[in-house]
Structures are given as C-alpha cells and as structure tokens.
Amino acid sequence: MQPGPAHGGPTQPAPDEPRPDEPRTVVPLTEPADGVGEVVATPSALARVVEAFRTGTGPVAADAERASGYRYGQATFLVQLRRRGAGTALIDPVALPDLSAIGEAVGDAEWVLHAASQDLPGLAEHGLRPARVFDTELAARLLGLERVGLAAVVAELLGLGLAKEHSAVDWSTRPLPSDWLRYAALDVEVLVELREELGRRLEAAGKAEWAAQEFEAVRTAPPPAPKPEPWRRVSGTHTLRDRRQLAVVRSLWKARDASARARDIAPGRVLPDRAITAAAVAMPRTAGQLVALPEFAGKGTRRRAAAWQRAIDEALALPADQLPSLRGPRTEGPPQPRTWADRDPVAARRLTAARELVAARSAELDVPVENLLQPEALRRLCWTPPEPATAETVAEFLRGRGARPWQVELLAAPLAKAFADLD
C-alpha cells in the first residue's frame, strides 16, 4: 500500500494553487456566514436544532470548548455544530446535558473535527457519538504539513485567517461574551470545506485509506486508563532524590486535588506545582516557615497555609516503610531506552536499527514518525520481539499493540529484516 506521489515524484500544484515556495495570501475570516445566533439553552430551542440538522445534508462540523486551566476536569461548556442547510448551532451542554437527539437526527453522517481525540470524550458524555469521523488534524499530519493547528491548516489550504485569541478563555463563564461566541462559530465555519480539500489531497497522495483507518482508531479508542501515582507528574518532582521529599509532594498533591475537586477549580490555580516542589525541598515545620517561602507568598496560598502545613506534617510523620519509592511504580512495559545499553545491549541495537528504519520511511512518505508507528509499540517490539522475528510474527505483534493495517503492511517485513541483519 504505497502512496502514489512516492514513486511518481511530487505532485504539481493545481493552476489556481500557490507553489510550495510562494506565500499564500490569507484573508481574515471575521464573521460567520449566518451571523452569531443565540446560544441554544432550552428544550424548545434544542428541538428546533434537532429538526434543522435532521433535514440538513452532508457532514456535521463539530467542535467543543472546555475550561481547562479554570475548572477541575475536562467538562464541555459549549458545543458547536454546523451542517449544510441547518446552519450553525452553539449549544450550552450545562443547560442541556442530553444531546443524543442530535446524533439520532443525523444518523450515520460523517462528523468533521480538528484533533478529534480531544473532543470526542466530552461529546460522548452528552450523548453525541459519531458513526464516522474525519479528523482534519490527523489528515494534515498524514500529508506532512509542518503546522497542524486549525488556524495554520486553514490558512495554508484555504487561504483564510482564523483568529485564536479566545482559545484559552474560561468557557464556563455565563453568559458567554458575544466575541467569544463569534470565535466559537468560526471554528466550525470552514471545517467541511477544509475536509473536502484535505480529502482531495489524501486521495492524490495515495493516503486516503491510511487516513480512514486512523480516523476509525480515534473514534473507537477506549478512555485512557488512569495513571498510577499521578502525583509524580508534579513539575520538578524528577529532581528530588529524597523519599521524604517525595512524601511531601504526594501529600500536598492529594490535599490540593481534594480542594480543587470540591471547589471545581483547576488544581494549578489552587496551588501551583512550583509551590509543591518548593515545600518538598524546604520541608517546613510550621505554617510560618511555609509562608516565608516565596512560592507561598500569595494571598490565597497564605490563607490556606494551615491546611497545606497539615499535609506536610502528615508526610513528615510517616514511618520509613510508608515513604514512596524513588523509582516510581513498576510498569509492565520496557524500561527507559537510556538504560537499554547496560541492561540489554542486543535490545538497544534493535531499537537503534528500528528507529533509523522508521525515520527513513517517515522521510520517504512525508508522515511524522509518531504517526507512522506508535513509539510505545516500537519500543515493546524491540525489547521483547517475538521468537522467531519473522514478517508474520512481527505483524501479529504490532497488531496486538494497536498498529493499524497500513502501518503493519509498511513496516512489519522491514523491521523483521532489520532484526535478522543484526544477528
């Protein structure tokens, strides 16, 4: 399964397209074609949207806005949908948590999203589960575009400028400002047109089937499993080399998480990571010593100093056998590649050869390495390859770790050969 241009030379741009070395004129997109309507927040308004989308035609453009950095968790606070003949609907999922009627109305229509993996879980929480998906970000990656953010792809392929100044605002705000709503409507304004252009380019490059497999993998992906010991993700924790200090990090993280969850505030706004690691290094014995640290000088942090000090005291009082390990939880996967040369030199050589092979294919096919094959699957293959490592057994191994058929077809036999050449 090879892309056409790979053996026929680069595809020439169409007469009305700029050449790759020519800058494209970008026209700012400032107003939705249909204007910005009222936010749909009542059952009667939702019923009108359902009927409009039922009689609409073609794909459904979709986007969702969260309040990351403001609220605890990843709840959706605005859903934007657009379909030909139905226009654009901006829906408040807080007021209308069950949106399944829209999904039923559009049936098996394709949904077009940018970075679908970010929005699909939140949409599913409100009953929106597309039967088919086209991910414009993934399509851009498979086509080898250097920048794959929505604004960049729209500018490069359609010559339109999307403003992104409201991408990180607090979408839980009510009522939502009109300029935010305009921004939200514009995010789905040209998604279908973008999908059509990307689809044409995927077909021309011989990558349409690859893309279809990737889109389906995203659509059907299970929710990510909870990470063991999530407190270890606090910034700066990797620099600590004392188990008691790690216990302070763990205790403060748990206290922060409980407070953030109860108040529905992003944990970093309750207590920054830098404050947690500063306290772990200093290990203060009193609230007075704690607030003397520059990271605890803020009014809100000082007000809760007693609670933070209690969490620190609990960590300081733990017996040695209850302190966290310096190495972290055991995982079933391979160790960090930097240790392979000492622990298993043969595996290290396999990894080097495999990475070189995948990098070469990535450059040849103009597909990013991480999209050509999942890095975790490659590491596992190199650490514990099947015996014997033939094209068939390597293919089976990769399929069992989530590799798509197009990836297996491209890489299984070459990887098996690369391993054999090392013997």
UniProtKB/TrEMBL annotation:
<dbReference type="InterPro" id="IPR036397">
    <property type="entry name" value="RNaseH_sf"/>
</dbReference>
<dbReference type="InterPro" id="IPR012337">
    <property type="entry name" value="RNaseH-like_sf"/>
</dbReference>
<dbReference type="InterPro" id="IPR044876">
    <property type="entry name" value="HRDC_dom_sf"/>
</dbReference>
<dbReference type="Pfam" id="PF18305">
    <property type="entry name" value="DNA_pol_A_exoN"/>
</dbReference>
<dbReference type="GO" id="GO:0000166">
    <property type="term" value="F:nucleotide binding"/>
</dbReference>
<dbReference type="InterPro" id="IPR010997">
    <property type="entry name" value="HRDC-like_sf"/>
</dbReference>
<dbReference type="GO" id="GO:0003676">
    <property type="term" value="F:nucleic acid binding"/>
</dbReference>
<protein>
    <submittedName>
        <fullName>Ribonuclease D</fullName>
    </submittedName>
</protein>
<dbReference type="InterPro" id="IPR051086">
    <property type="entry name" value="RNase_D-like"/>
</dbReference>
<dbReference type="GO" id="GO:0008408">
    <property type="term" value="F:3'-5' exonuclease activity"/>
</dbReference>
<dbReference type="InterPro" id="IPR002562">
    <property type="entry name" value="3'-5'_exonuclease_dom"/>
</dbReference>
<dbReference type="InterPro" id="IPR002121">
    <property type="entry name" value="HRDC_dom"/>
</dbReference>
<feature type="domain" description="HRDC">
    <location>
        <begin position="242"/>
        <end position="322"/>
    </location>
</feature>
<dbReference type="InterPro" id="IPR041605">
    <property type="entry name" value="Exo_C"/>
</dbReference>
<feature type="region of interest" description="Disordered">
    <location>
        <begin position="1"/>
        <end position="38"/>
    </location>
</feature>
<dbReference type="Pfam" id="PF00570">
    <property type="entry name" value="HRDC"/>
</dbReference>
<dbReference type="Pfam" id="PF01612">
    <property type="entry name" value="DNA_pol_A_exo1"/>
</dbReference>
<dbReference type="GO" id="GO:0006139">
    <property type="term" value="P:nucleobase-containing compound metabolic process"/>
</dbReference>
